[in-house]
Amino acid sequence: MSKDKIIGAVILFGAGALLVFYSFWLVGGYIHEQIDLNGASSWWNWAWWFPSIPGLPWQLAVILPMWLVAILVLAIAIWIGYSMLTTPPPVPLEELEEELEAEEKKKEEKKDDAKK
Question: Is there a single domain that holds both residue 64 and residue 36?
Answer without folding.
Answer: no
